[in-house]
Design brief:
CATH architecture of one domain: Beta Barrel
Helix content: 10-25%
Largest sheet: 8 strands, antiparallel, barrel
Order of helices and strands: HHHEEEEEEEEEEE
Strand order of the largest sheet: 3-4-6-7-8-9-10-11
Radius of gyration: 42 Å
Number of helices: 3
Structural class: alpha+beta
Number of strands: 11
């Protein structure tokens, strides 16, 4: 077998002519002389193994230093970094920013039971409404007056309106009988103030503005199918489990009118009570 190392032209002559023991570079020349004599005695395999071992040692010592320099350069500017030196060892501590708290969100199913009709800003009598709605609350506006300020939106797929079977232009009853109208409502504008958000029972105030539509003209033949819907409530929220709360609103103001979008605007005012169940959408692992 031909030695691949000694196959290089003039390599044997150059190694034999190398003067070992020179005083100018004794350390380098002594290592070269030792390597050359070792190559002569053991052949190409021993020389390759020695060369590979030297390269491996260089790689192992150089890689940790390179990684340490890269970590020091890659620390973000906003992180607080403190270094303490003990002899030749440097210790680096990095403080990462705290994780953001999940946004509080809730979905509630609520039902309204009428408690009576009143003439606050309306003229009708014997007009009452039963509703079932789905409400979504989200803590979008932080805190104010020690309360959590939520944005809320509600959809009521079921609205049952009881009104006089016959009424005059202004909605005054002309018949002792009642008739029922069916409708739907959407309230996209609302907010809620919730106090004691981490306690077992939590009081709150809420208000909503939206639109409501019926299958017939409501409260008067000269009125309209579509109306405005204003709601305001005071309620209490009781925690039942880690995700589920009971909601009770003993005072619910429910107003319906068309704002004179039609010739007649009788309107109706109702005070009622709402009950429902709320489901909190906080992330798994969050403590309450």
């Amino acid at each position: 077998m031909i030695d691949p190392l000694w196959a290089v032209p003039d390599l044997q002559a150059r190694v034999s002519q190398f003067k070992c023991g020179s005083s100018s570079r004794p350390l380098v020349e002594s290592r070269v002389c030792a390597a050359a004599s070792l190559l002569r005695r053991e052949g190409d395999r021993t020389g390759y193994l020695l060369l590979a071992a030297l390269l491996t040692l260089v790689f192992l010592f150089a890689l940790p230093n390179a990684r340490a320099q890269q970590m020091q350069i890659g620390v973000p500017a906003e992180a607080a970094v403190s270094a303490r030196a003990s002899g030749s060892i440097a210790v680096t501590e990095t403080r990462l920013p705290a994780a953001r708290k999940p946004v509080a969100q809730e979905i509630a199913i609520m039902g309204l039971i009428p408690g009576g009709d009143y003439q606050f800003i309306s003229t009708t009598t014997r007009c009452t409404a039963w509703t079932v709605g789905i409400e979504y609350d989200r803590n979008s506006w932080g805190h104010l007056l020690k309360s959590r300020v939520d944005y809320l939106v509600e959809v009521m797929p079921f609205v049952l309106l009881s009104e006089p079977a016959k009424a005059d232009f202004w909605g005054n009853a002309k018949s002792p009988y009642q008739q029922h109208l069916y409708g739907v409502s959407v309230s996209p504008f609302g907010f809620r103030f919730l106090w004691r958000e981490n306690a077992r029972w939590k009081p709150y105030l809420s208000t909503k503005l939206g639109a409501i539509a019926f299958n017939k003209k409501a409260m008067s033949e000269a009125a309209s199918y579509a109306n405005f819907n204003i709601q305001a409530a005071f309620g209490m929220q009781f925690r039942l489990s880690d995700h589920i709360d009971l909601r009770v609103e003993p005072f619910e103001f429910f107003h319906v009118s068309n704002g004179y979008l039609a010739a007649s605007n009788p309107g109706m005012d109702e005070l009622g009570t709402r009950y429902g169940i709320s489901y909190r959408l906080h992330r798994r692992g969050e403590t309450r």
